[in-house]
């Protein structure tokens, strides 16, 4: 009797990369495909799929290597759980950018072998992704590397410091509510369309910050989100008790951008849960804010010296300073994931405010199942 293989995903805008993934997975046995519902896609990606769930099931079922396809009945990252329990597959297979610890842990709990495949095109064809096919959307994402929270006056009023961001090419759809400035990115798309217009960087970032935080906004999105999206490359914004920085340093040096992007690996935790509240149980003091500012200064210096060990250490020190002020950023799941990578990573932090998103690792060796980023070197 043939073994059973389960994979899951959105599979919108079906392309050769999907078909090659199906073909590789089907080499392990009869292939079953769990397809995310329209609601799940919207919840995870912040947009509706181009093709609705019935169309996507029809198209996937038509691929020769697929035994059967169906819409998952659940929601979120583990929307396929009920179908997995019913099907009892021998294997669950993901691409590297679809790997999450929750998927792996569910498979281990159910006795299903978990396999990670590297995304690669069929020989002779170009690499394809749904993001590339939707490439009318050129709006970047960003990672805050160090100093995050100092862009909030209630933190930098205790001690001034900087926030370091790197702007990212939209090589994939990062999950909503994952600390990649996705909400500010949506505001930018609403105002400007698919890409940032030409203009002076700081002026554009100010416009976006104001649009993202209209009068009456109760919880102000930090200005580092707008700066990290608008300024290509690396930006270092200096804060001293105000929402807008006193100055912004900007770096587009290719060797420094390559150093950062080649050092970083992102492991998905999934989007933060709906009732997550990072602003409860907080503690602020001059020393805690100084610890965060000092870590950001050290990180900026390590990047310029291209010192990988120091880069990893200061990333971790900055994260520890964040958690000291915002303890809800870290929980048992995050601790468990950090412990898993502690021996191979030089440093780590969470994207954004935590509660989900991505564990950002600094490593000199490739990290299996992690997502790679591409630094944005120009405005569009």
Write down the CATH class of the largest domain. Answer: Alpha Beta
The strand order across the widest sheet is 3-2-1-4-5
The proportion of strand residues reads 15-25%
User: Helix tally?
Assistant: 14
The largest β sheet comes out as: 5 strands, parallel
Q: Structural class per helix/strand content?
A: alpha/beta
Classify the helix fraction into a percent range: 25-40%
Low-pLDDT parts are: none
Give the N-to-C terminal Cα separation.
53 Å
Q: Rough shape?
A: globular
In round numbers, the mean pLDDT is 91
Number of domains: 2
Q: What series of H and E elements makes up the topology?
A: EHEHHEHEHEHEHEHHHEEHEHHHEE
Number of strands: 12
Gyration radius from CA atoms, angstroms: 21 Å
Query: What would the CATH topology of the largest domain be?
Result: Ribosomal Protein S5, domain 2
CATH architecture of the largest domain: 2-Layer Sandwich
What's a quick, concise take on this entry?
With 380 residues, the chain is α/β, with parallel strands linked by helices.
Task: Report on the architecture of this protein.
- The protein has 380 residues and is an alpha/beta fold.
- The chain folds into 2 domains: 4-133, 3-Layer(aba) Sandwich (Rossmann fold); 141-362, 2-Layer Sandwich (Ribosomal Protein S5, domain 2).
- It has helices at 16-26, 38-45, 53-61, 81-87, 101-110, 130-133, 153-156, 182-192, 201-212, 223-230, 254-263, 286-305, 308-325, 332-341, and strands spanning 4-9, 30-35, 68-71, 91-95, 113-117, 141-146, 161-168, 234-239, 247-251, 264-270, 347-350, 357-362.
- A 5-stranded parallel sheet has the order 3-2-1-4-5, sandwiched between helices. The chain has a 4-stranded antiparallel sheet with strand order 6-7-8-9.
- A hairpin with a 7-residue loop joins strand 8 and strand 9 (247-251).
- Helix 12 (286-305) packs antiparallel against helix 13 (308-325).
- It is globular, with a radius of gyration of 21 Å.
- The model has no long low-confidence stretch (mean pLDDT 91).
